[in-house]
Specification:
Largest sheet: 7 strands, mixed
Mean pLDDT: 92
Radius of gyration: 17 Å
Shape: globular
Number of helices: 9
Low-confidence stretches: 1-9
Helix content: 25-40%
Order of helices and strands: HHHEHEHEHEHEHHEE
Strand content: 15-25%
Number of strands: 7
Length: about 220
Amino acid sequence: MRLDEDTTSRDPLADDPRLPGYFGDAWATVLRFDGLLRVHGVERGLLGPRETGRLWERHLLNSAAVVPFVTGAASVLDLGSGAGLPGVVVAAMLPTTPVTLLEPKERRVRWLAEVVDDLGLTNVTVLRARAEDVSAELSVEVVVARAVGPLAQLYRWAAPLLVGGGRLVALKGDRAADEVAAGGRAAQRAGLSAVTVHTAPTLDGTAPTTVVVALHRENGD
């Protein structure tokens, strides 16, 4: 299947005229990323076979919803980047922000490196490692995560990667508030506080994204 072949007919948002305006200067890059995912995402095990029919709403717009919570950060790390969601979208929309895509699986790292090269994302570094393997040498202002694991685990993985006063920004589902409540002690043990749940809309008529933000305490206080 060619990248320029029409694979978007089953996605109701593929031809939505609002998309270019929403993504602004990043539109051409995000559209190209959409094409790469449609052609290679399923065959390389990055997406389920039904996901191409809802790629814009469920994955690309969902990833873009995190950008307002990241804008202005000096550095961003996408924990368990996988297919590059949300990290590639964040990097495209914030081209002057250094973004690290952290992924332990070799085949996904190869994919991420190919995508970064194809899209010309000069602000992105792809790193093959687990969070616990690089926490002693890598510190960022914001860690973003999507579909990585429950919050209690995510707190433990993300907190050591954050500078004092940094923040974890996690894209979660409808049960986010329950996860926050259940993970209160885990957040405290990890040195995270002020955990809040936000509803982040994108385009009218699409499902809003639920975003959990947790702040890393300054100097471990």
